What does this fold into?
Amino acid sequence: MISKIRALSAIFYILFAIPFAILLMYLFKNIQRKIRQITAKAFIILFGVRAEIKGELDPSAQILLINHQSFMDVIYLEAIHPNNLCWIAKKELGKPFLYGHALKAPKMILINRESKREIVFLLKEAKDRLEQGRTLCIFPEGTRSKGKEKLLPFKNGAKLLVEHFNLKVQPIVVCGTRKCLDIGTLKFPNTTFTLQYLPAFTPQDTQWFEALKTQMQETYTQMHLESQNTESKG
It folds into this structure.
């Protein structure tokens, strides 16, 4: 019951705070990042969100590759990352009025992943954001997973961007964010989740993407097992 009440409260916060943040972002374009960060930090503080952080964030990384479980992935990184993030998301997410403007106002990149013609658009938009000094963020799985033992297959969009622009990559593995917050099922038990920064790197060979998939899966598997062991002891 408490979990559901907390989830409804989170939805109320989103419905109240996001429109206000959108308005401010359209009015004050030069401080859009600060507006987003304050809105996200307020959510984290208001609901007492707890995360265990492992590894070190590298602010010089030009693109973040993150496995995706929950809306919490986005809001937490928006709150704690020092750079102006640019999320790359599915075009359909720009259609709902509220969420759509939350992506369009700060000029996130919305693409149709099923269309090969979108590659030119993606590269053009990514070049623009990189020239503005923004850090690209992409979920290589392409959608949210269910927080089980296996990550979803990786799409090639991240590989294309990294190799085309020779970007410095920071992989991030999250575990437990879906359990912490699942807006779709009105569950917000607010359990502690784990976020692990893997070492940032610039690819030196053509096999880097496959190697990264393996590394992120192994890291996630270990985090998942540790989480289960903690729960069984509790």
Summary: The chain has a mean pLDDT of 92. Helices lie at 2-27, 32-46, 71-80, 97-104, 118-131, 157-165, 177-180, 208-233. The longest strand covers residues 169-175. The chain has eight helices and seven strands.
